[in-house]
Amino acid sequence: DTEVTQTPKHLVMGMTNKKSLKCEQHMGHRAMYWYKQKAKKPPELMFVYSYEKLSINESVPSRFSPECPNSSLLNLHLHALQPEDSALYLCASSQEGLYGYTFGSGTRLTVV
Amino acid sequence: GENVEQHPSTLSVQEGDSAVIKCTYSDSASNYFPWYKQELGKGPQLIIDIRSNVGEKKDQRIAVTLNKTAKHFSLHITETQPEDSAVYFCAASKGGSYIPTFGRGTSLIVHP
What we know:
heterodimer; A: mainly beta; 4-stranded antiparallel sheet; 0% helix; globular; B: mainly beta
């Protein structure tokens, strides 16, 4: 299995809703990431998990809450989002060392 | 921190032509340079990478060159096909736990 699987593919939520994005990989990668991508822009780092511990939080607002239940799963809990949070949310994983990322296909999030 | 400049922002070619995308980086300690292809509605996909101990790497119609002295690296696509149409991102990293810095992306359009 050489994929990162993200669910759901599309999500529309109101500003008072609570929802979660899910990410799964079975490649044995010990680093997992959440990125946010706006149209025509490069991915923007949100969080990094290394060996299931949060190692980087790029000053992301608390309405985004990451969770790493085990070495294969990564969640992003969403609460009280704003319309400007609408974007493509990408999960990625990687091996240690000089290796690239394997990205999932993303969740297209629309906040109404 | 690292700064990666990518040019051009848009590249339009005829099928069968070659395409070249160029990136420069600022941190001489960067030693890993991946390239990602992002098709519409999908996550970025690693297509080729190069490490600083190598000057050139090829994979079928795709090649990457690295000039460490000048701190620039380039993606070369030969015999372009319509399915090569996508946004391409370069990145630079120091590897290990260092997070890559992405270029701003190049939208490649291959006309049949």
